[in-house]
Amino acid sequence: ALLDLSGVQEIKGTWMRSTSLPCTYMPSEGFTQQTLIWSMERDYGTSTIFRRDDSGDHVLLSQFRDRVSVPKHSPGDASLLIENLEIPDSGHYTCQVIWRSKNNSLITKEVTTTVKVVKVAATKPIIRASEPGLTFPAGARASLTCVANGSLPISYRWFRSVPGGKALLLSSQAELAWDSLQPSDTGKYYCEAENR
Asked: Residue ranges of the Ig-like domain (predicted)?
């Protein structure tokens, strides 16, 4: 079959995760992809989400701004990546590709995928504790890593306890690192893990 789009009928996506809606074809000699349109059908009609043409890529629906993209440099791959899935993203998505042939005729094909966004059981982050009371030589490189299980995304913060004072926030990464430990770095450190 010349210039046939292939996709899938249904995709179950997980809330707050990413999912890719496949839409692919075999590039064919003498046919140039002119326009690619991804649209979404919901209760009140169809809206165009994404359009790629000579003037570039355009995201036309504000709810998808900064959350959708199509591979740039893989000919034949028009798949739509949706990040940070929200519940209202559920619906019927249509990938439409228009090619121009050598004799300037246009060929249009489309494929539709139903997306269902599901919530997974959310779990609080549980930090896996490291052994307390680590001893390092002065001048050594060292790092402490905070590891937690639970629903993603998880953000981390490292603090240093200050006796009788407010704890100092040292890092908003999972890892707290020192290039060269000093005796003044001796103390109590703790990490916090947080998710939605």
From this structure: 1-112, 125-196
**Would you say 83 and 152 are in contact if contact means Cβ atoms under 8 Å apart?**
no
- Residue located via tokens 């959350």: 67
Determine contact, residues 91/115, Cβ cutoff 8 Å.
Answer: yes
Residue 77 in tokens? 């791959």
Residue 21, judged by CB atoms within 10 A of its CB (0-12, 13-18, 19+), counts as buried
Tens of pLDDT along 161-194?
988 889 999 999 999 999 999 999 999 999 999 9
CA 174 to chain centre: 19
Residue 65 pLDDT grade (very low, low, confident, very high; cuts 50, 70, 90) = very high
**What number does CATH give the domain 5-118?**
2.60.40.10
Cβ proximity of 71 and 127 under 8 Å: no
Which part of the chain has CATH 2.60.40.10? 5-118, 126-195
The CATH number corresponding to 126-195 among 2.60.40.10, 1.10.10.1020, 2.40.440.10, 3.30.1330.60 equals 2.60.40.10
